[in-house]
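Handout, section 4.2: multi-component inputs.
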Amino acid sequence: MEFKFFYHFGNFLLMLKGMFSRPENMKMYWKQFMQQCVDIGVGSFGIVFIISLFMGGVTTLQTAYQLVSPIIPKSTIAQVVRDTIILEFAPTLTCIVLAGVIGSKIASELGNMRISEQIDALEIMGINTKGYLIAPKIMAAVLMIPVLVAIAGFLGIWGGKEAGELSGIISSEQFMQGLRQEFKAYNVFFAMAKSYTFGFIIASVSAYYGYNVTGGALEIGKASTTAVVVSCVLILFMDYALTAILL
Amino acid sequence: MIELQDIRKGFGDKEILKGVSTIMEPGKVNLIIGASGSGKTVMMKCIVGLMGVDEGKVLYDKQDFTAMDEKEKKVIRQEIGMLFQGSALFDSMTVEQNVMFPLEMFGKGTLKEKKARVAECLERVQLKEAAKKFPAEISGGMKKRVGIARAIVLNPKYLFCDEPNSGLDPQTSLLIDKLITELTQEYNITTVINTHDMNTVMESGDHIVYMYQGQKQWEGSNKDIVFSKDQKLNDFIFASEFLREAKEMRQLELFKDGKWREQLKKEQGEQ
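Output:
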């Protein structure tokens, strides 16, 4: 088992090393990067929008359910919602969902290209396929996933506010007041640090499994599943590690 | 010209290529034939550099490809065009964009010049009307022709075709063979084809290498093949009763043409 881990880890590092070479045509690489930004950023916005709103709403309702003491001001609900969303839900939950959406897409796309010899065709042309196919995906994920996490944070808090108001638990003014209380900008930095790390994990791990597919259609499916599972486990592990280090 | 010098390749304990040497000349259609598992696909992958060789050399115009670093290999690779068995077209691009891709990546000149070159290549393979279609919208034969157009767009010196006729009807197969042969002669390309197709062997095989269990069993042209006394080659090529009869008819034709004299001289020379 440990040998397989080292085998994959070594190959993964070699893949990352292989990405660094002078682009054959910078314009084409840029085009590919922009395409990936659109696929990852715009393509995942819908799901991020939905989960963030409900995530915020549910957090407000559950926090209110637990804070029953009359001596705790209602604005505390907003404080708890804000910190829970910024510290954990926006970066981690969003990235777990994105690991499924983006990770499986990257793994299956590259796996299909491998099986249908499209990667071989690029190699024959003299193109560094790791540089042309994988590097833009990783860079786009590292750029766009923090943006999606930031949007998820805003939408989550907004969803929380709306849910609180609709259910009559907390008024909009009380919620806004709570949001401003004891706000730590460092928490946003922490969330961004996590989202950069998770973005890298999602794109690179999925690309690794997709790029190295051998066999047929069944193996593409297996590679996608493995990519998502491994990405999720690594996200959770790194979530713990970063929390222990940075907080 | 491509020269193979005693190339060997194995996977684990199994040796797939057991020391193959041959010379593939420009302007000729060079065929690699053999049964499944005889090592012809591995041989082609070793020649184009998709796999490294364990021993031996692959020389492109006297330059040792196997000893080159990645940067040097890239230069050679830009002179290589390859048609894959499944065509390997980029799904997300139209036919025109597929053919344009190598030009965009490596080609010099203005966009107008590049578009003109793409149109010329599509015209050459008679696919101008399919320029705006996606690979999923065209037939297998058309995909192969797009693959050929993409392979020749940068005016390659070497053209590799991996089973260009697989999955095609006989008429389309002949069309593809004719196209490859014409392009080879027109641009003096060193063409290497990996095939099972007997029509290709008999019609286009200027130089044929028959692989058997990882070794070069026989080498010659499509004229020589009908006179070959190699039992393994004959069992492979003329496998059916129909093909054996066709071989006899071809021998008769060649005798009528007087080509038997050349063959007789050749055999006497060998003795």
